[in-house]
Amino acid sequence: MSEVYRGRAPNIEINKITREKIKFTLSGVDSSVANSLRRVMIAEVPTMAIDVVHIHTNTSSLHDEFIAHRLGLIPLISENQDNYDFPRDCKCTGHCEHCAVQFRLKVKNQEGGVLDVTSRDLRHLSQQGNDVRPADSDGPILILKLRKNQEIDITCNARKGIGKEHAKWSPVATAVFKYTPDIYLNQQRLESQFTAEERKEIVNSCPVGVYKLNEESNIEVVKLNKCMFCEECMRKGEMIITRSASALLNVHDNVVRVSQLKDRFIFKVESSGALKPESIVSKAFTILTKKLDDIKQLIPPLINTR
Amino acid sequence: MSQNSHQEQNLLIPAFLQLRGLVKQHIDSYDYFLTTDIKQIVSSPSNCCVLSDYNPDFYLKYKDIRVLMPSIEEDAVISSITPHECRLRDLTYAAPIEVDIEYIKGNKIICRSGLEIGMMPIMLGCCNCVLRNKSEEELAKMLECPYDPRGYFIIKGVEKVILIQEQASKNRIIVEIDSKNNVVAQVTSSTHEKKSRTVVQSKGSKIYMKHNTLSEDIPIAIVFKALGVQADQEIFQLVGTQKQYIDALGMSLQECSILNILTEKQALRFIGSKIKNSKAAKTGRTKIEEARDVLATVVLSHVPCENYDFRAKIRYLGIMVRKVIDAMNDPKKVDDRDYYGNKRLELAGQLVGLLFEDLFKRFNSDIKKHVDKIFSKPKSSKGEPFDVITAMNKKMITEGLNNAISTGNWSLKRFKMERAGVTEVLSRLSYMSALGMMTRINSQFEKTRKISGPRSLQGSQFGMICPSDTPEGESCGLVKTLALTTHITIDQPEEQISKLAFSLGVEDASLFSGDELYSPGVFRVFLNGQPLGVHRDADFLINSLREIRRKGKISEFVSVVKVEEEQQIHIACDGGRLTRPFIIIEKCKSKVEPKHIKELTLGLRNFDDFVNEGLVEYLDVNEENNAVIAMRHENISEDTTHLEIDPFTILGCVAGLIPYPHHNQSPRNTYQCAMGKQALGIIGYNQFLRVDTVLYLLAYSQTPMVRTKTIEIVNYDKLPAGHNASVAVMSYSGYDIEDAIILNKASSERGFGRSLIVKRQNSDLRRYNNGLSDRLVMPPVIHGDNPPPSIKKFHALDKGGIVAVGSIVQTGDVLVNKETPVNKVDDIEMSKLTDNDFKPSFTCFKGPNPTQVNRLFIACNPEEPFLIKTVTIETRPPELGDKFSSRHGQKGVVGLIVQQEDMPFNEQGWCPDMIMNPHGFPSRMTVGKLIELVAGKSGVFQGKFKYGTAFAGDKVIDCGEILVKNGFNYTGKDVLMCGTSGELVGAYIFSGPLYYQKLKHMVADKMHARAIGPKTALTRQPTEGRAREGGLRLGEMERDCLIGYGAASLIQERLMYSSDVFIASVCESCGNLGYEQWCQFCKSRLNIVKVKMPYACKLLFQELQAMNIRPKLNLSSS
Ligand code: SF4
Ligand SMILES: [Zn+2]
């Protein structure tokens, strides 16, 4: 198998970028590379998230820990997270402007009715750190609701962390890849041994509509990338062959065959809102290379000791 | 069309429950008690007045009684209370009982109205409860949850339920075969005054009557003679003149002549000589008089007998004898004891009624005693004339009721009845457990007897009792649950019914000779088991009665049953029968038409309208036997008389949670019924306002994707207990053997399976008899970062000595810094008190994890002047070993928590919250779970809830189609990729949403280990159990292993050195135990040696010595 890849250059081809999503095709690499990229995106791209919460007043109907948990899960825009240190790396004790951004949430419902407290009510405590703020492009995020005269007063620190530690630091909602489908149609047999009706059956068997019948009522692959390897079409083909009871035919020689191209991966990454999708990918690559670099650092002593 | 109208008619069930509610039976029965029964009790001739033996002029007469709205008297101010206030302040939710009386004071008649004689506990939701008929908003103002089932009591802040008690029916003849193969016809007579059991049984070929008051069995002919039946001919007529009766009675009649008893007097004398504890000598009555009295009042006491007119009793006895003879000839005529038509369910109203009557009688007899005492003394002319009100002890009734309900011990003096376990604390583990408890039926049957009869499912339970919801183990089948639409009747007055029966042509039985009663074609009519008369046209009577019932002229719960084989018609209007509603079918057409349903949905009609217009009627278990009931529209045939409203109503509310239960193996549904009650969830809208000892709650509880009709009807969708987990059914890592599940770490961090544990700790400042009371003290000041633990434990306290709200406490931290006076008895001058007169007695927090103090309550009630309740909330994400279960009796513990990136994923970004091993399926056969997954998955893509209602629900075919339409595999399988390697998983993975419940068993509450710790005082061995920080036992089997292995030193180390090693002084010369180098026996210290032995061994020797056995120790050195 590995022969296939030899001498082939890895390539990335971006299919689509929106505010929250990126789709790209990574080719010329093995599944291990693709998967490490995916894993790093989920678990090791750092972001900022609220981590330490001080509750001064809370007369709301939710209890303190519940609110703290909700605050933690609010995605904070972390494009500039490089400017911050991990709390464990920072020289300060407690927190400082290098490792934390402080917010204050102070709301009281004085009007009556029900007041929604949302991520928009989170205010920075100081000028510094304005680049880290709750993601807001899909509207405010509800934290809790207050009834008349209920009040909440909280200060909280956003700190840098990674998804491995807690899911709130994971920058992605989804980060997945799939193999590129490879569909082989034995057109010759399809034409000779199948009726038009049966070909239509095969086309209809696909739940995602990969196939279409063309003018000559032959099967054509139209949406290859939609294929999810469910093999419904293969099973249908087999079924039709067995049904027609042509015992002479070799059943195992499928007329339709779906397989995966093992060196082309279609990635789909959706951001949680903390980072732009493309920066998640590029940061993931940086981290991946840094990991390799760190290993490389160990090589010279190894060689020297030989 | 039939499908459609069928779909619609089950709208009747919510309508039914809206009107009746799941606990309507409790509330109805209590309403009946408060409005009717209590008045009857007080106005009954034996209770309504108190007379004096010494003063013939004196009387006290009760004219009326009523129960007011709940209130409390504090500092002489009477204010109304709400149930929630009672819960918070540990009060009793009770209302004053007021009577109107007329009595003699001096020589004047005095009328007094509105005199309080005690407090009556009020059932929540009953007619005297403040919550009755309140809107959701009004309930919210009273801090009450609108979905709370109610129907329980609050005694001293504790919610108590009076469970439904199942009993054999009273006042009915039941024929059985006893262990000696004799036919036994017995009847338990029960009236307000008396309870007794009369038995007519065969012994060989003779027939006897047996009764508790009689020391011997009386030949039946003698009983007849004693009751005034002179001629043998007459006896034959009463029983039956056919050959088999004459043959069977022959021997019994002979006995009369053998004993030479021919006249009524002789017979009475004979019976009189057999009476146990005869009082004849004392009262100066003759044996004959006494025997007549027993026959009139004790034997068959429920059959009316005035002025020694025994005719009704004679006829009743005749019927009993006839039944015995019938059963002797034909074993098929024996009754089935477990048949539900012969069962009655006792509810709170009846039980409290019995208790109240007993207490009221005692109350009156106390008054009488007091009055007699006063009047027996010579009258002093001076001073105020005696006022009987001063003799009334209000506390007696109040405390009697409160005690019985809070302990569950029902002791009724007049029936000599002692019953334990009548009430239970309402379980608030989850909403379902509370509901389940309210619909639970407790059987009086002994649990220890290993008899399958009463435990097995009886055909007559169909539709009345849930076939799934029963516990496993010893009480299996004895504790049952009501089905969804079951209603339990309450007592109805008989007079109206009997009058009606007579005007419909029933001829009074007393006008007939026995012979005519049994002629063919004549039906004997019974009302509540009492013979009423005969009727020659049975169908006419039955049809007219049913017609009148459908017209609403008599109660809808009256049942009319024709028993063809016995030529009997039974009319019943007594309480405790099980009934449920059916749609009436006439001429193959349902009387409920689509237009009616439409009116129902528009709110123009309620369920009662259906009943009143004769579209729907209630049938009890017996009347069901006369009906031909179609299950569905399609099944209607010419004979059909009724139609089920919907088949799923055969299940109860707890079993109703299961989606597709009809696809599961039945024990699985039973397991789920037990587990559904342990699932953490939302308990009520007021859950954070409650102060229960422990509340287990689930954060972000979700309504299930796949619902059932029952779920919506019982409001489980609003108070759910579980999460819709994305489940992949696959093998992963090997940490999933034996039903263990794999959890996604990211999911749990985002809130999946996160539970809240709300705990309450009480601490009260008591006041002592010497005027001193407990006090709160300021905590010591904490200096520095690292104070010693003895000081650090005060860290959470406020200046006032009570813990600060919002602080985090750990095990051992002080919550209330209380001090108690050392001397609680003697009078001490306040000014001389010093700190040394108080010793600390603080309340500490106990719990596995650091926990936040959420609230503080400071309250007072009549018993406790200063009550401090501390409420802490602990948030607990799922951890290894926590127990989860689906709704199909499939429980498992968390075996591994996996990082999200290691979890398998599909190409669309889906990633499971949970992985379940497929080995859970084949042996459990929970096909319902498979269908739930497919249905849930299709619902997700459709954006709709799916229904898995029993015997209906969305079809798998349709769900599969929806999946295909949305680009998924028809069978719910997906192509997944491995999270660790990125390769395709080599199989299609069955995956989708399943509703998972987190059960209350959590590792944090159970985890336990100890190195050193406390010892018990007596044996000096380590304590036992987690609560006492006990050691882990090296039991017999473990010991056997070590012996087998030959590890002698290890055994010695485990069993002695690490346990209760003791160095005893033993005297070598006499072999006795000594003490501190001194042998008391030899009075010397010369031969004392030290011997190591377990303390328990030393204790044994001493205990033996105490029993005058001398264990002698012969010592030798090896
Ligand atoms: S494998 Fe499934 S998705 Fe792919 S083409 Fe065949 S039927 Fe369509
Ligand atoms: Zn001695």
From TrEMBL, chain A:
Superkingdom, natural source: Eukaryota
Entry's localization field: Nucleus
Keyword Nucleus annotated: yes
GO-annotated cellular components: RNA polymerase II, core complex
Any single biological process term in GO: transcription by RNA polymerase II
GO MF, any single term: protein dimerization activity
PROSITE patterns, alphabetized: RNA_POL_D_30KD (PS00446)
InterPro entries, sorted: DNA-dir_RNA_pol_30-40kDasu_CS (IPR001514), DNA-dir_RNA_pol_insert (IPR011262), DNA-dir_RNA_pol_RpoA/D/Rpb3 (IPR011263), RBP11-like (IPR036603), RNAP_Rpo3/Rpb3/RPAC1 (IPR022842), RNApol_insert_sf (IPR036643), Rpo3/RPB3_RNA_Pol_subunit (IPR050518)
Protein name listed in UniProt: DNA-directed RNA polymerase II subunit RPB3
Pfam families: RNA_pol_A_bac (PF01000), RNA_pol_L (PF01193)
Predominant location category: nucleus
Family the entry assigns: Belongs to the archaeal Rpo3/eukaryotic RPB3 RNA polymerase subunit family.
From TrEMBL, chain B:
Gene Ontology cellular-component annotations: DNA-directed RNA polymerase complex; nucleus
EC number: 2.7.7.6
Domain DNA-directed RNA polymerase subunit 2 hybrid-binding: 654-1028
One Pfam family in the UniProt entry: RNA_pol_Rpb2_7
Catalysed reaction, written as an equation: RNA(n) + a ribonucleoside 5'-triphosphate = RNA(n+1) + diphosphate
Domain of life: Eukaryota
Subcellular location: Nucleus
Keyword Metal-binding: yes
Listed SUPFAM superfamilies: beta and beta-prime subunits of DNA dependent RNA-polymerase
GO MF term set: DNA binding; DNA-directed RNA polymerase activity; metal ion binding; ribonucleoside binding
Residue ranges occupied by any RNA polymerase beta subunit protrusion domain in the UniProt entry: 21-398
Record InterPro entries: DNA-dir_RNA_pol_su2, DNA-dir_RNAP_su2_dom, DNA-dir_RNAP_su2_hyb_sf, RNA_pol_bsu_CS, RNA_pol_bsu_protrusion, RNA_pol_Rpb2_2, RNA_pol_Rpb2_3, RNA_pol_Rpb2_4
One GO term (biological process): DNA-templated transcription
UniProt keyword Transcription present: yes
Top-tier EC class: transferase
Residue stretches making up the RNA polymerase Rpb2 domain: 170-346, 425-488, 525-586, 607-639, 1030-1114
Keywords of the record: DNA-directed RNA polymerase, Metal-binding, Nucleotidyltransferase, Nucleus, Transcription, Transferase, Zinc
PANTHER family from the UniProt entry: DNA-DIRECTED RNA POLYMERASE I SUBUNIT 2
Homology family: Belongs to the RNA polymerase beta chain family.
Role: DNA-dependent RNA polymerase catalyzes the transcription of DNA into RNA using the four ribonucleoside triphosphates as substrates.
Protein name: DNA-directed RNA polymerase subunit beta
